[in-house]
């Protein structure tokens, strides 16, 4: 085990599966004390148990809908009440409803914004005062490369993820002298369990999203998690307000 995050308290949202679960495991391997959240309480508990069975400290879990301000606040309070502080917040909770814009309904549009943008806004709003008081913090948002390259059927999703990108840049300037950095990791298509399942249903439909990637493949979840951990580390102290694509070259510069 490396000691990159020893004694640091790290909150990871959307941690019950996919990229969030892999991010959590990377932090556990770095010695972090984890607080994990997701709407899926049973799967969240499974992730926590798996991490503990690998010889790491068992994460604290706090399930709930983080698009609700009071639930997000309870998550951050749980981290502080349990561990006395908060060092890192990874806003990974999300999940888009990907479809042509005119096929959306008011409910699917609202759900897409809630899952991706409001979860980020409320968790950050509650976390930043804790970080500001201690003079240290790292906030890493999971954005989307589709904001930059305008993928088919992603307009509503991009509306939400574009806000996730934008809030990080604004907060980076606002809190630049408070020891807190704000950055975004923006993946292209990633080989998550959800993508694997969707591929079985319609491989041809998903292939067009791979075709825009010059490397010709989806990203691996570990590749996303590695960038998150770098931006969350002390060594990234002079990196703030950045949207860093992990995308196989699907957008450049």
TrEMBL record:
Protein name: SDR family oxidoreductase
Lineage: Bacteria, Pseudomonadati, Pseudomonadota, Alphaproteobacteria, Hyphomicrobiales
InterPro entries according to UniProt: NAD(P)-bd_dom_sf, Sc_DH/Rdtase_CS, SDR_fam
A Pfam family this chain is assigned to: adh_short_C2
SUPFAM superfamilies: NAD(P)-binding Rossmann-fold domains
Highest taxon in the source lineage: Bacteria
Keyword match Transmembrane: no
Keywords attached to this entry: Oxidoreductase
Gene3D superfamilies listed in its UniProt record: NAD(P)-binding Rossmann-like Domain (3.40.50.720)
Keyword presence, Oxidoreductase: yes
């Amino acid at each position: 085990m490396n000691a990159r995050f020893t004694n640091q308290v790290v909150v990871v949202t959307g941690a019950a599966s996919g990229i969030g679960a892999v991010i959590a495991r990377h932090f556990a391997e770095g010695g972090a004390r984890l607080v994990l959240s997701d709407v899926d309480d049973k799967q969240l508990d499974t992730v926590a148990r798996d991490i503990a069975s690998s010889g790491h400290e068992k994460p604290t879990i706090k399930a709930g809908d983080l698009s609700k301000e009071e639930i997000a606040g309870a998550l951050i309070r749980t981290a502080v009440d349990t561990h006395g502080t908060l060092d890192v917040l990874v806003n990974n909770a999300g999940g888009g409803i990907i479809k042509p814009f005119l096929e959306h309904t008011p409910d699917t549009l609202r759900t897409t914004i809630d899952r991706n943008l409001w979860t980020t806004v409320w968790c950050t709003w509650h976390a930043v005062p804790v970080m500001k008081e201690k003079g240290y913090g790292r906030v890493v948002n999971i954005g989307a490369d589709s904001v930059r390259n305008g993928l088919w059927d992603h307009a509503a999703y991009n509306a939400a993820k574009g806000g996730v990108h934008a809030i990080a840049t604004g907060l980076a300037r606002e809190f630049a002298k408070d020891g807190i950095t704000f950055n975004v990791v923006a993946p292209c298509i990633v080989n998550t369990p959800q993508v694997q399942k969707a591929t079985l249903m319609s491989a041809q439909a998903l292939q067009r999203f791979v075709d825009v990637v010059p490397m010709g493949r989806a990203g691996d979840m570990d590749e996303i998690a590695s960038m998150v951990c770098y931006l969350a580390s002390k060594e990234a102290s002079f990196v703030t307000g950045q949207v860093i694509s992990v995308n196989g070259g699907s957008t450049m510069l």
